[in-house]
Amino acid sequence: MTAALRFDPIRLPEKCEQLRKEVRAFLAEEIAAGTFDPHKPNREDTDAPEFSHRVGAKGWLGMTWPKKYGGQERSFLERYVVTEEMRVANAPTRRFFVADRQSGPVLLKYAPEHIKMEILPRICRGEICFAIGMSEPNSGSDLFAAKTRATKTDGGYLINGTKIWTSSAHIADYMIAIFRTSPPTKENRRHGLTQFLVKMKQPGIKVNPIGQITGQYEFNEVVFTDHFIPDDHVLGEVDGAWKQATSELAYERSGPERFLETYYVLTELVRAVGPDPDTRSAEGIGRLVAQLHTMRRMSVSVAGMLEAGKEPVVEASIVKDIGTIWEQQLPHRVRDLAAFVEETATNRETLERQLDFAIKTAPKLTIQGGTTEVLRGIIARGLGLR
Amino acid sequence: MAESDNIVVETAEKIFADLADPQTINNDKTNSWQAPLWQALSEAGLPLSWVPDDLGGSGASLADGFALLNAAGRFAVAVPLAETMLAGWLLAQAKMASPEGEMTVVPASPKDRISLDADGALSGRARGVPFAKTAKHFAVLAHGKDGVSIALIDAAKARVEAGLNVGYDHSDTVTLDKVQPITIKSAPKGFEQTHLMLMGGVARSLQIAGALESMLDISVRYSNERVAFEKKISKFQAVQHNLARLAGESAAALAAATSAADAIANATSFNDEIYLEAASAKIRCAEAAEKGGGIAHQVHGAIGFTMEHILHRYSLRALAWRDDFGSESYWAVELGKLVANRGADELWPLVASR
Lengths: 386, 354
What we know:
The complex is a heterodimer. Chain A has three domains: 14-128, Acyl-CoA dehydrogenase/oxidase, N-terminal domain (Butyryl-Coa Dehydrogenase, subunit A, domain 1); 132-241, Butyryl-CoA Dehydrogenase, subunit A, domain 2 (Beta Barrel), CATH 2.40.110.10; 249-382, Butyryl-CoA Dehydrogenase, subunit A, domain 3 (Up-down Bundle). Chain A contains twelve helices and eight strands. Chain A has helices at 14-32, 49-57, 76-88, 94-110, 113-124, 241-245, 249-253, 264-273, 279-307, 313-338, 348-361, 372-382; strands spanning 130-133, 149-153, 156-164, 174-180, 193-199, 205-210, 219-230, 234-235. A four-stranded mixed β-sheet of chain A has the order 1-4-5-8, with helices on one face. In chain A, strands 2-3-7-6 form a four-stranded antiparallel β-sheet, with no helix packed on it. In chain A, strand 6 (205-210) and strand 7 (219-230) form a beta hairpin. In chain A, helix 1 (14-32) runs parallel beside helix 3, helix 4 packs antiparallel against helix 5 and helix 10 packs across helix 11 (348-361). Chain A is globular, with a radius of gyration of 21 Å. The mean pLDDT of chain A is 94. Chain B is built from eleven helices and ten strands. In chain B, helix 1 (7-19) packs parallel to helix 4 (62-75) and helix 4 runs antiparallel to helix 7. By secondary structure, chain B is an alpha+beta fold. Chain B is globular, with a radius of gyration of 20 Å. In chain B, the strands form two sheets. In chain B, strands 1, 2, 3, 4, 5, 6, 7 and 8 form an eight-stranded mixed β-sheet that branches. Chain B has a two-stranded antiparallel sheet with strand order 9-10. Chain B has three domains: 1-77, no CATH class; 99-190, Butyryl-CoA Dehydrogenase, subunit A, domain 2; 193-352, Butyryl-CoA Dehydrogenase, subunit A, domain 3. Chain B is 50% helix and 15% strand. The chains are: A alpha+beta, B alpha+beta. At the A-B interface, helix 3, helix 8, helix 9, helix 10 and helix 12 of A face helix 6, helix 7, helix 8, helix 10 and helix 11 of B. Chain A: Keywords: Flavoprotein, Oxidoreductase. Chain A: Pfam families: Acyl-CoA_dh_M, Acyl-CoA_dh_N. Chain A: Residues 131-226 form the Acyl-CoA oxidase/dehydrogenase middle domain.
């Protein structure tokens, strides 16, 4: 066999189910208190600092991290449960999601001890928001074409250039970004980029919001003009960011957020067709549920492999490839199936409003966090084709 | 499910490799390989994997038997291994012993029904029964006035109209006209035809997933050998992306099928959770057979469309297996009804329970 893909039927352990009950109870209380409306994914203001603090107080942020940094030393499968329940409830996770999933683990691995002690406990308390500075106006999927310069100066670096499509930069307290510290070499075009911890809301950083086709303002242009970053904010090897980028990707690509972003329209469709659907609706729903179940089982399987210390990079890329295409098609399939829903269905307005938003959201799902084309390149490499 | 996870699979793979090499059997127009293969499988006790020792079988676990079916799919063997395993399993539900030789199950579609009359005779018609023509015995699920019964009948007592499925394997119409069974017993309380169909559907799902693994394997290999426009076609991005999609379909089929198998192997009853797992596996694997098989053919070009090439052994069987024990359309309707009936707010709890 040239390609042994593994998707072992991993089940969430019993302790996850107790945790799931706690998360559901917590979210039900938040909904009852009016923190958010689970039927309204199209909120204009997606930032919820107080909610973030309360999630942190529950111990659900950085929950896999060492206790000395504020973590709970719980498993990735427990974190998985928290993530999927929040996502399905449409909870406002924007403020903490990136820090919890991605930025914290990068700091854990590459930041100096005093920075870890300073920042990680604050992530765990839900106090700070992170952004990721990767794309630039002329380098998106081609990450290693980044040009924003970090020029060595006394005690640190001066940053000049522009990052773009930076989600949450307008509310972020920190950004983890890659900047160019040296030109690429002939032998290795990926050489010369360095990962930095950037403190936002400082001189030399200007954040310009960019309107999205959904009507929301979630991503931004971030312009750096002689912005100073001290030496101890370098994360990992100078000029060697390319060595650090790949191992975390499995975490970023295979989570429940990669197939549940438009899930709410499926729930509303089931509500709209009622308990006794016609054949067309039943078949449509059945096929969608079969896909959803399969996606989730694949995603849980990858989470289990990660928990076991494996690096299922190809499997994780497959989950994101087919998961994002599924969640992208979902609103259109639901729209098809809803075409003959009775005018009198009580949730008709809710469904229509949700479809309007989900259809506008759909195009980004196969672009953000690694395009379909990039993912398929990674899968092809894993298959031994390049 | 990787190869050689257990002794049952190891044994089977060795037999398949020795006696059912795809290229060798594809060249054999007389099917002279089938008898030695079946004999070797039987001597190893594999067709009766799911029959306990005291009922004449080899008493393997459900999990080992499912892994065996996945391996059989990887070799796309055209002998009634899955069918005999299912028949043995069905008979064992009523603590009935299995005879030697090839068996199949009747009915093999959720829409067909066999009835049991007051004299203890069986009547009815079942379409699309795999390998009925070559089976020596049928394990029959019948409905009588006292509920569901399980019977063993002599195949010679039934009328069998031969047919072939899309994969050139026997898929026959079986008509029973007041056939007296060899043995008959009541099914255990709560056992329904649906359970046989879900079990058969999961067996087919594992076979499809296995066939897709092989299609991915031979497609990747071929793309690394075939040269066009002065380079290996594996170097073309369009081909790479097609193969990445095939890997996705293969992975989805494998995940859905092994998850359903694991669910049944650890279940105490056929509840909604098992229904979700088994129906989803059949739906997803059938969809993958179409999409994935299509890509495998596209990568192979004209050579894959020839009888001489082995690709069709996998691609056509995977398509044919979609039809057995309820098509994906059938299960999608049933699963959709179940979900709608439980209600919108019970969908996520059902999915998350797995």
